[in-house]
Amino acid sequence: MPFIKKSTKLTSPDEYLICIKSLGQYLKKLRNEQAISIRQVAKKCDISPSYLSKIENGNVFKSISIKTLLSLSEFYRIPIYSILEVSGLIKDNNEVLPNLAQYLRIKYKLSPQAIHDIEIAKEIVDNKYVD
Q1: How many Å apart are CA 8 and CA 36, to the nearest integer?
Q2: Statement: the pTM of the whole predicted model exceeds 0.90
Q3: Which of 41, 79, 87, 108 has the smallest number of CB atoms closer than 10 Å to its CB?
Q4: Exposure of 128 by Cβ count < 10 A (0-12 exposed, 13-18 middle, 19+ buried)?
Q5: Where are the domains of the chain?
Q6: Tell me: the pLDDT tens digits for 21-33?
Q7: CA–CA distance from 99 to each of 4, 59, 90, 102, 109 (Å)?
Q8: Residue 79 DSSP symbol
Q9: Out of 6-10, 94-98, 100-104, which region has the weakest mean confidence (pLDDT)?
Q10: In whole angstroms, what is the distance from residue 86 CA to residue 7 CA?
Q11: Looking at domain 13-94, what is its CATH homologous superfamily?
């Protein structure tokens, strides 16, 4: 069973294929930015390196499981909706984005004091530069 079926919001099969390619390119970019081999990611996500390569090349998304997509999301520490949004498979939805404190706590595992200090710094920057 496919994880995502063609959305009625996508106007053509070509547009859908572009989104699938974008998804793979984004996952590959995340891996390369962290200088991690395809074998390392595959091992941590419990998939074969060849399967991950196919995903990154946009060749097997129709058969990618929710488990695999969640594993990749957790490995890269990126919310699954962000991965799908970057690929163009879902629309931007600012309502589901975490606030700054939640993001810092999840992404960087910062202490409450560190988060408080960053929020104060953000407030100073906002006051100085936001109209």
Answers
A1: 36
A2: no
A3: 108
A4: exposed
A5: 13-94, 98-129
A6: 888 898 999 999 8
A7: 27, 35, 20, 5, 14
A8: -
A9: 6-10
A10: 15
A11: lambda repressor-like DNA-binding domains (1.10.260.40)
